[in-house]
Amino acid sequence: MRSDSLALRLSGAALLIASTALPALAQDVTLRLVAPASAVGDALEQLAQTYAAETGGVTFTVQKFPSGDSYGQAVVTQIQSGAAPDLIYTNAGYGRLESLMPLAQAGHLADLSAGAWVADFPESARDVYYDGEALYGLPLSLTSVGLIHNTAMMERLGIAYPETEEDFFAACATAAGQGVSFSSASGAFPYYIVETIAAAKVYAETPDWNARRRAGEVSFATTPGWAETFATFARMAEEGCFQRGFEAASVPDLFAAMAGEQGATNVGPVTLAGAVLRMNPTLSLAVGPWPSGENTVALGFYNDALSVAAGSPNLDAALGFIDWLAEPEQQRAFTAIAGGTARADVAEGTFPAMIERLAPYYSAGEIVGLPHTGWTRLEVLDTLSRGATQIVTGQATIDEVLAALDAAWDAGE
Amino acid sequence: MGAAPCRQPKDPLMYSPTAARAPLAWAAPAIVIMLLFHYGAFVAGGWYAFTDWDGLSTPNFVGLANFRQVLTSAEARAALTNTLLLTFFYVTLSNLIGLGLALMLNGALRAQNILRMVFFAPVVMSPLAVSYVWKFIFSVNGPLNAGLEALGLEGATRVWLGDPDTALWSVLVVMVWQFSGLCMAFYLAGLQGIPTDLIEAAEIDGASPWRRFRKITFPLLAPAATVSIALPTIFGLRTFDQVIALTFGGPGYATETLATQIFKQTFAFGRFGYGAAFALVLTALVLVVSVIQLLVLRAREDRI
Does ipTM come in above 0.85? Predict the structure, then answer.
C-alpha cells in the first residue's frame, strides 16, 4: 500500500513537472528571417543570435540571398509559394521588388503600429512606411546620400568642397587638368546622381512632388526642375566631370575608381563609401550635400527596414523581436556593422564624422527622402536611369526622356 | 563533272524487325513525365500571359492586353530588332568562320587535334565568364584600345560598350568568338563523313579545289549545315548572358534583347503577366523561325 502511495506521488510529481515544462516548450519557436547577403544581412544575423541568446525560447534561421534583383526575386518567390518567412528585410516605400509598400498593399505584411517604439517614428519616413494608419516596417538606419568625396585627394588637387554647381564644374576642370576625373558615374545606373540633383532642383521647392504626381497635378514634362536636372547631368558628362567611358561603367567600376583614386568624388549612398573603404582603408572619405547654393538640401532615407509577414504563424515572437530591435542599443549595434546612422542618434543629433556636412540639415529636421522611394512603378526608375544615359549618348533629347518618364508613370494607371 | 552525291548506308539495326515492333508503351512513362514537367509547366505558366499578375496580388484576366503591349511598345520593338540583327549576323558569321576552320583543320595539318581543341574550347566555357573577360578587353582602358593606340590608331578607340553605335556589335563579336568553334565541330563531323574516293575521283578528273568544294564538299555538308544553322539560330534568339554581363541592355535600350526584356519585366519590375506574354512571343518566334529554317534546309538535303 505504501509503495502504491509512493508511486502515486511520484507520478503526480512527474505530471506536475511535465505540466510546468509544457508552456516553456510551447514558447520555443524558430523564426525564419530573410536578408540580403551583405553587411545588412550580417548585422541582422548577429542581432538575431544575440536576441536568441538573451531571451531563450526563440531561435532563428537566417536565409541570405545575393543583394540586388536576386534578393527581391527570392522574397517574392517565397511569398508566392506560400512559404513566406516570419521576418523580411525590406526597403522603404516603392522602387524595388522587396520594397515594403507593394508587399503591404498586397496584404503580405503585418501592421507594426502597436509597437511602443512607434512613438519615436521619424517624420521624414512616414510617407514610405505608413499606408493610412498601418505601419509596415521598422526603419533600421538613416542612409545618407550625397557627394562622397576623398578629402585627402581633393586637398592634393587643390580643390575645396564645392558650395555651388559652378564650383563643382570648376573643380571638374581643375581635376581634369591634373589627369584625373573629379567625379565618377555608372552609365547603367546613374540614378543616384540624377535623383540627388533633382532633390535640389525639384524637391527643395516642392517637397510633396511625388504626392502631387500621383494626384496628376504635376508631371515630369511640366516641372522645369526635372529638365534642369537632366541638363546638369548632361553638362557634367560634357565637361568631363566623369571618368572616360562612364557610359559603359557598372557600379563595381565606381567602387574601383574611387578606391584606386581615379576619381575624387562620387554621388551615392554612404554605404558606397563603406564599400570603398573596405577596398582601400587608407582613404579618407566624407559625404556632403550636392552643392546647390541656397537650394542645397540633405538627402537621407530610412531605406533598410525589417518587416513581419502577415501570415507568420509566430507573429507574437516576430513582433517581440522587432520591439527589441527598435531599442537604441540594438539600432546602434546594427549601424556599427551595416553603416548608416541609428534612429536614436538622429533624434539626439549625434552623427558620424563622415557625414558632418549633412549633420546641420539633419539636426534641423531638413531631410529629403530619395525621390524614387515614392514612385509606385519600378519602371519609372529604370526609365530615369536609361534616359540620363540616352541624353548623354545622343539617343534621346531631354524632352523625350521626360515624356518617357511620364509614360512609364502613367502606364500603370 | 556531275558527280552524284551518295547517301551513307543506313544502319540495318534501325530497321530491324525487333526495333520496328518495339511497343510505344515502353516509352510511355518517360513521355508522361516529360509532358507533365516540361510542357505541362509551360502551359500552366502560359496562362499568366493573359493576366496582370504582379507576383503579389491575385491575377486578373486581361485578355490580349499584354500581347498588344509586347507588339506595340518601343522597348519591345527595339528588343526584337536587336535580337533579329544579332541572330542573323551571329548565325552567318559563326557558320562562315566555323566552316573555314573545319576545312582548315580537316586536312593533313600538323597539330590539328590540338588546334581543334583550342578552337572548340570557348564553347564549353561559361558565357558569363567569357563575357566578363571581353568586358575587360572592350573597356576604355582595356587591351583593345591600348592595341589601337599602340598602332597609332587613336582615332579608332571607342567606349565600345557605351557607344550606341558599337555596343550591339561588340556583343556580337563575343558571341561569334565563343561559338564559332561549335559550328566548326558540326562541319568537321560532316567533312569526315564525305567519302574520300569521291574527292579523289574528282581530283583525278582535273577538278580544281574550288570546284571540288562547290560541287562535292559543300552539297554533302547539307546535313551538318542544317544543325549548324538551326542551333545557333535558337541560341541567337535567346541571347541573354552576354548582354547582361557586357552592357545590361544599354546604353539606353541599344542592346536589349527579347530574353533580357523578359528577365527585366518579370524579375526586376515584377510584371509576371507581361513577362509571360513576352516569353510566349519569344517561344513562338523561335518555333516559327526554326520550323521554316528546318523545312528549307531539309528540302535542300533531299534535293542532294
Answer: no
